[in-house]
From TrEMBL:
GO terms for molecular function: ATP binding. Residues 248-563 form the ABC transporter domain. Residues 34-313 form the ABC transmembrane type-1 domain. Keywords: ATP-binding, Membrane, Nucleotide-binding, Transmembrane, Transmembrane helix. It comes from Micromonospora reichwaldensis. This is ABC transporter ATP-binding protein. It comes from the Bacteria.
Length: 566
């Protein structure tokens, strides 16, 4: 069954990954700003700890108990202040992470709904799944790291100012050394960016292939194609593994740089500070403070490299999201939608000449199944055409109105996970008697009776516990429960046995009494019970009438419905 969005999901008009990340951050300006401020306070409080320790050490060397007590209390206050700011910063960081990740999920689902039936033709299922599983974490982490990254920058600047005030050479080492370290890290970011993009593309393709294999596993086993597909999947999996190793190789260099470069920086500043202390240019307390500063700088430097890494990953992920968001539906609402008259009316496909009269069970038999599917696509407005309802072109009617009044039910529809009752009546609009009547009309009552909890039984993913014929009957029951004004059914009995098909054919007309129904089929059992039969060849109507009349007067029709047998 095909569904389309009820309205505009509010997807922003964003043309780049960077703008998307900025837009996401701007969605929660207050909490993001508070998080950044707390990150700054948290890091600066840590940066001031070495200064307090140094002053306390100087007080100890001078045997100044008052100074020792004062700076000891200052150190305690900084510790408490840092702990409080850290807790609040982490709260904001988690909120910002989740807000960025799940807002991306909302936009992705909204874009999928907006694309409607065009989604499978525009983007693979694996791509959408990868966005909803892997990419949202990368995007959330990119939003989260802004607080710590900003705090790290301010903390480094604070330490640099303090060191410049105490010793110009040491201050210059910090002021000049930090940008140099970041430049070295930046050399690793570009190849990491490329490798992550390649890995992400391969991951999406492999996920799509895995979904295809799982959904078609029964058929593959039936035709003996499982070993072939398994070998292909194994080959693609190994290619993905190779891409992952290339990413890991660059990431390992980046991780090593995060340890090695700050460590070397710490050794350099400590060595210089020790020389100045031996020459008497700085006190013992200042030497301890300088060592503390350099030891502390390891943290903000790692925070900065982590920020660059996460922002890069977030940019790669956001690029995929933006690519999905920029897809436009194949069908758009008219600028000024035309209202449809109330009540039943003729549904006409101008291209083929098919006219579906209101209140009747009409069957459409086509020599080529794709011709029947094309007619239904036009009548259901899943492609642009000159089809009309009540004489009004469907292209001039709002899509929501078309979907409300015309329902297309085909064999590409899925059964979703959840209680069977919710599967048959997703909007919870009808009572159990209506559901039972639809199940009876679709000859699906036995399916429900065989389930341990009846309608309350859980349906597995894609209804895999049901056979193909059972799934088809449940899909038909779902369409009958919806009870649309116009129902277009595409081969609703192709996967069931002859006895079940006969029962469905007998009951379908009564279940849809007073409603407009078109059934695309070449089954004599269904055609015989239709009020009117339309025969289509080469995409055009060539004959109409009852099943019996067409059998007697149209040899091509007879050959089509009898499969070429007399």
């Amino acid at each position: 069954m095909r569904f389309s969005p009820a309205g505009d999901p509010g997807v922003p008009d964003i043309r780049s990954a960077t703008r998307y990340l900025v837009w996401l951050a701007g969605r929660h300006k207050a909490l993001l700003t508070v998080g950044i401020l707390l990150g700054v306070v948290w890091m600066v409080a840590q940066a001031l700890v070495p200064a307090a320790v140094g002053r306390a050490v100087d007080g100890l060397t001078r045997r100044d108990e008052e100074a020792l007590l004062t700076w000891g209390l200052v150190l305690l206050g900084l510790g408490v202040f840092q702990a409080g700011a850290g807790i609040l910063r982490h709260y904001c960081a988690v909120h910002n992470f989740l807000a960025g990740a799940y807002r991306t999920v909302q936009l992705t689902v909204g874009a999928a709904n907006r694309l409607g039936a065009a989604l499978p033709r525009r983007v693979s299922a694996g791509e959408v799944v990868s966005i909803g599983t892997a990419d949202i974490s990368q995007i959330g982490a990119a939003i989260d790291i802004t607080a710590r990254g900003t705090g790290a920058i301010v903390a480094i600047a604070t330490v640099g100012v303090i060191l410049l005030g105490a010793s110009v050479p040491l201050g210059l080492v910090v002021v000049l050394g930090v940008p140099l370290l970041m430049a070295v890290v930046g050399l690793l970011i570009r190849p990491l960016h490329r490798q992550q993009q390649a890995y992400r593309d391969s991951e999406g393709a492999l996920t799509a292939r895995a979904g295809d294999i799982v959904s078609g596993l029964r058929v593959l086993r039936g035709v003996g194609g499982e070993p072939v597909l398994s070998a292909r999947y194994r080959s693609r999996s190994q290619a993905l593994r190779a891409d992952g190793l290339r990413v890991a190789r660059v990431e390992s260099l980046l991780e090593a740089a995060q340890v090695l470069l700050p460590g070397a920086f710490l050794v350099l500043v400590t060595w210089l500070g020790a020389r100045f202390a031996l020459r008497g240019e700085i006190s013992a307390g200042e030497l301890v403070a300088f060592y503390g500063y350099t030891a502390f700088l390891v943290s903000p430097l790692r925070q900065l490299t982590e920020a660059v890494d996460k922002l890069t990953r977030g940019h790669v992920a956001a690029r995929r999201v933006v690519r999905l968001l920029r897809l436009t539906p194949e069908l758009l609402d008219p600028a000024r939608p035309t209202a449809l008259p109330d009540g039943p009316g003729e549904l006409v496909d101008v291209a083929s000449g098919v006219t579906v009269r209101p209140g009747r069970l009409t069957a459409l038999a086509a020599t080529a199944p794709e011709d029947a599917a094309a007619v239904v696509d036009r009548l259901g407005r899943y492609v642009d055409s000159d089809a009309t309802l009540h004489g009004v072109p469907l292209r001039e009617v709002a899509l929501a109105t078309v979907r409300e009044r015309i329902l297309v039910a085909d064999n590409d529809a899925h059964l979703f996970t959840g209680p069977l009752r919710a599967e048959l009546d997703p909007h919870d609009r009808v009572d159990d008697a209506t559901v039972a009547a639809a199940l009876a009309a679709a000859s699906a009552t036995d399916i429900v009776e065989a389930l341990p909890a009846g309608l309350d039984s859980a349906v597995a993913e894609r209804g895999r516990e049901f056979s193909g014929g059972q799934q088809q009957r449940l899909r038909l029951a779902r369409a009958l429960v919806a009870d649309p004004e116009i129902l277009l059914l595409v081969e609703p009995t192709s996967a069931v046995d002859a006895h079940t098909e006969a029962r469905i054919a007998d009951r379908l007309g009564a279940a849809r009494a007073g409603r407009t129904t078109l059934v695309c089929t070449t089954s004599p059992l269904v055609l015989h019970r239709a009020d009117h039969v339309i025969f289509v060849e080469d995409g055009k109507v060539v004959a109409e009438g009852t099943h019996t009349a067409l059998l007697d007067g149209e040899p091509r029709y007879r050959a089509t419905v009898s499969r070429g047998e007399d």
